Amino acid sequence: MEGFFYFYHMSQLNYILYDGPTRDNLLPLTFTRPMAELRLGILTIREKWERYLQTAISTQTEAYLQKKYPLVLAVNNVWINASCLPNKELVEAVLRLKQDQVLKSKDDIIAYKSVEQNIPPHEVMHDRPAIFIKNSFDLFHLNEEALKDDFNLITYGRTSEALPACVKTTTPENIFVEPGAKLGHVILNASSGPIYIGAAAEVMDGAMVRGGLALCRGSVLKMGAKIYGATTIGPYCKVGGEVNNAVFFGFSNKGHDGFVGHSVIGEWCNLGADTNTSNLKNNYEQVRLWHYGSQNFAKTGLQFCGLIMGDHSKSGINSMFNTGTVIGVSANIYGSGFPRNFIPSYSWGGHSGFQVYLFSKAIAVARAVMLRRGKTLDKLDEDILKHIFELTTNFRSSY
User: Fold this and answer.
1) Interhelix angle for 379-391 vs 359-372, to 10°?
2) d(CA 398, CA 294)
3) Domain edge (last residue) among 76, 106, 134
4) Nearest to 308 by CA among 22, 28, 8
5) Same domain, 190 and 332
6) DSSP state letters, 138-171
7) How far apart are CA 259 and CA 277, in angstroms?
8) Contact between residue 308 and residue 326 where contact means Cβ atoms under 8 Å apart
9) C-alpha distances in Å from residue 20, one per residue of 25, 26, 155, 284, 376
């Protein structure tokens, strides 16, 4: 393993993660970020590749996002499909690429070596399985394997902080606690998957965790929380109640009771007290999910699928979301009853109907929310949110 990483240090190649052809399948999550910034397991896709390659990696993405995520070009460029998750064998295959070669897994491109972003003609086939994130629901559906891989990658050769005597554990060798984390009287069962507690994270009294779990830097599991794997709680989130196989990106809150299962929650979201998601249809049929590309509902192939929520969206107290609900960016949902299964970005309302959430009001809320966490909404982010407001106008045309 040591020689493996040393080999990466010696590389002078310039690596670029580019948005692949399935970007639209990952909306609304990719409205506000490149595919490389999607999180599953413990790390974002970019962080995974950077740890394996031991170098910074830039991004090729949509023009309105490129200013925030600048592209770096050099003479020796290796273009990596950002939907592909790295592993040791796959990364070694990428490093073996020669100029004007493309590495493929069946029909999917993994990476290619070229000065410009033109796919070269010389194909090299990767004969090991490769994992691609092609749909929004893949983030929770593939989270168990991603969490195990990240856990092994992050903890290799390191020693966990000691667990307090008040913590009850099962399979403690699968539990890793970073410096500065705090744990109260809690139950951690890592027999079905690893449990990772990030730096400065806190698990409050009475929380019960059945791994896998990634509780990332600065996040808090509230008192009495019930967490089933595989669940990822990104940086600086606050999560309580019952959660099963969900991914929270970062800076989002589900601070109270209520159930969220088989779901993906973006950044800067807030789920009001007793917000509940249905993740299984009453007739047990396959779940259909809104697809932005076809502008229609499409089959997922999954029996369990809950909520996909874009950044800066909020739900009021006692909100209910039906199986397979998709909510865009900066939506505000409240009131009794089930709202529709697809709620466009910048929508305001609920079961009784929606109206346009004025951009000026939405951006004022975003500023206030971020300020509470000591963050500032800068001009780049405001321009991105404004572009999304304009980009999604047609979805609100009926309001």
Assistant:
1) 140
2) 18
3) 134
4) 28
5) yes
6) HHHHTHHHHHHHHHHHHHTT--PPPPPTT-EEES
7) 6
8) yes
9) 10, 11, 30, 33, 30
Task: Give the model's confidence band at 25: pLDDT under 50 very low, under 70 low, under 90 confident, else very high.
Answer: very high
- Tokens standing for residue 78: 């290796």
Same domain, 190 and 114: no
Which domain, by its residues, includes 157?
141-396
Cβ distance 154 to 196 under 8 Å? yes
What gap in Å lies between CA 325 and CA 81, rounded to an integer? 28
pLDDT tier at 257, thresholds 50, 70, 90:
very high
Is-contact 264 308, C-beta < 8 A? yes
How far apart CA 23 and CA 65 sit, in angstroms, is: 13
Q: How far apart are CA 85 and CA 148, in angstroms?
A: 13
Instruction: For 330-364, write each residue's pLDDT tens digit.
Output: 999 999 999 999 999 999 999 999 999 999 999 99
**189 alpha-carbon distance from chain centroid:** 24
